[in-house]
């Protein structure tokens, strides 16, 4: 059973992540709140290849701003190894969080932070790669055959 956070929506999204990071995800949310008072909500976790492809098309062939450079299979979300967060104050989502407080806590818990990316910083994004690239994860996924949900990350 996964530890619970303050937020039922986050708990539902965490439950869909790779089993190997579910506990880590709850710990991230709870530790940030304990140390800073910032209540984080998981806004995105696992994302199918089709959902990823649709998101990739945003700002390209569909209306909207470009929000990702990753096609289906090229994102850690596609393997349940990433999550995006926002702060919740009252009932309001705050997207410009105090990343200077949040990111060091997350990194101290072993998360990679998208805000450190040089070419396309993604501050709400945190992931655990287990030393595997997206290409390696895709090969593992393809080897499992259709219907498989999670790859073995060791």
From TrEMBL:
Peptidase M15C domain: residues covered: 69-127
Protein name per UniProt: M15 family metallopeptidase
Q: Which organism is it from?
A: Dongia rigui
Top-level taxon of origin = Bacteria
Under InterPro entries, the record lists: DD-CPase-like (IPR052179), Peptidase_M15C (IPR039561), Zn_M74/Hedgehog-like (IPR009045)
| Pfam families in the record | Peptidase_M15_4
């Amino acid at each position: 059973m996964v530890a619970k956070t303050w937020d039922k929506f986050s708990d539902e999204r965490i439950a869909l992540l790779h089993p190997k990071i579910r506990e880590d995800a709850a710990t991230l949310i709870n530790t940030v709140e304990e140390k800073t008072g910032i209540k984080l909500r998981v806004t995105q976790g696992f994302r199918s290849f089709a959902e990823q492809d649709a998101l990739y098309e945003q700002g390209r062939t569909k209306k909207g701003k470009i929000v990702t450079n990753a096609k289906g299979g090229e994102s850690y979300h596609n393997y349940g190894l990433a999550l995006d967060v926002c702060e919740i104050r009252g009932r309001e989502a705050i997207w410009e969080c105090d990343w200077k407080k949040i990111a060091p806590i997350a990194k101290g818990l072993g998360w990679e932070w998208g805000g450190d990316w040089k070419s396309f910083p993604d501050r709400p994004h945190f992931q655990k790669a287990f030393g595997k690239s997206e290409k390696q994860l895709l090969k593992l996924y393809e080897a499992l055959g259709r219907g498989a949900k999670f790859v073995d990350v060791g």
